[in-house]
Amino acid sequence: MRDAYHEELDSIGESLVEMARLVGSAVGRATTAILDADLKLAEAVIAADEKVDDLQRDLEARAIALLARQQPVATDLRIVVTSLRMSADLERSGDLAQHVAKLARLRFPETAVPRDLHATILEMGQLAQRLMAKAAEVIITKDVDLALQLEQDDDAMDLLHRTLFQHLMDDRWKHGIETAVDVTLLGRYYERFADHAVSVAKRVVYLVTGEHADEIAPPASVEGA
Question: Whole-prediction pTM value?
């Protein structure tokens, strides 16, 4: 019985990794869709979000069943409760990637992103994907130092987000109100996606140490990280 119990705990962790990989891929593909006005790719991203939702619902059901049957305590209880919270972060990340794809679909055959902002949006999309890949690695390795680095990595996303607003507030903005709204929304989607990746990493810190990430000193920055 105990072996089956721990196998089920392990399978919950594997589901979290799969969710993280799916939403990381989704945000990368959604970024391509919105920059290239690729309707087919946008539709694929939108449809694929159902897989993430299914994984989240299945994980939730299994976690609740474990709580009811096994009444875990200490570390095992932290694993189950923290996994539920991480799955919610990951499900929301998938929704945000889907929002990017839906905006691409809404503006097709035009692109929602002006040419002079393509590089910034591309960088935000690539960074979001890297952050989620690192979050997946943290789930697998339980590496606390790597988890704490994510919050520092997220500073780059915050900087890109501010860069978008500088463009929007510039007197030379010539793309109109509708495009300004689109760009504002996109910036928010990517910024929130990154926040969810950081949240996942912080929850792993709590799972491993029993302490909240904000109570632990961050590791020194690694060159090229």
Answer: 0.90
